[in-house]
Amino acid sequence: MAGLDARDLACQCQCARVRRAGHIIGQSGQPRLWRRRAAAGSGIEDANTPMLDHAAIAACIPHAGRMCLLDRVVDWDEHGIRCAALSHRDRDNPLREAGGLPVWAGIEYAAQAAAVHGALMHPRSAPRVGVLAALRNVNAACEWLDRIGGELLLGATLRHADAAGAIYGFEAYCGESRLLSGQFTLMFPAETQEPTR
């Protein structure tokens, strides 16, 4: 994290609070309750079916092995998703640097949550590859994620989607403290068709 001074970063960032369990603060400043949503072909049949675990997440995204960072889906609907992870504390985390796991790695965690959301909204036979094309309004309230003792909660809220990609707002929390927030644009490479013979 060369060029970043932790005191400057702390001065620029404000810690937000989750008002009540099960709620995330939306852009309007109002708490937003997330609900489970069933989708045809998603493997989720009704609100009583358990959310996805690590293995089911790995089947939804184009990340394998340790690079699949999320442990479970907490809840989701057509507007967004919340996922949880403990891998930020792993000493063999693939995003870890010599000094630890930088807070910016949380962007990859949130991007994986968005990828799971896309897979649940639009089931496919194979995970769809996306590219993180742009970041906006990224704010961090800490420097290192591996110093966070509790479970990370990652929220991704869909703001726009079309055939070329999607825009998501994202937040990373531990308990009631917001650690990281911002917006990213995911772009989908054009899918090539096999030539017909």
Write the layout of secondary structure elements.
Blueprint lengths: L5 H7 L10 E3 L5 E3 L20 H7 L11 E6 L2 E6 L19 H17 L9 E10 L11 E11 L2 E10 L2 E11 L10
Antiparallel strand pairs: 1-2, 3-4, 4-6, 5-8, 6-7, 7-8
- Tell me the distance between the termini: 52 Å
- Main beta-sheet annotation: 6 strands, antiparallel
Low-confidence stretches: 1-50
State mean pLDDT (0 to 100 scale): 78
Descriptive labels:
single chain, 197 residues, Thiol Ester Dehydrase, Chain A, six-stranded antiparallel β-sheet, 3 helices, disordered N terminus
Explain what this protein looks like in three dimensions:
- This protein is α+β, with helices and mostly antiparallel strands and 197 residues long.
- It has one domain: Roll (Thiol Ester Dehydrase, Chain A).
- The protein has three helices and eight strands; from the N terminus they run αββαββαββββ.
- The chain has helices spanning 6-12, 54-60, 105-121; strands at 23-25, 31-33, 72-77, 80-85, 131-140, 152-162, 165-174, 177-187.
- Mean pLDDT is 78; it is low at 1-50.
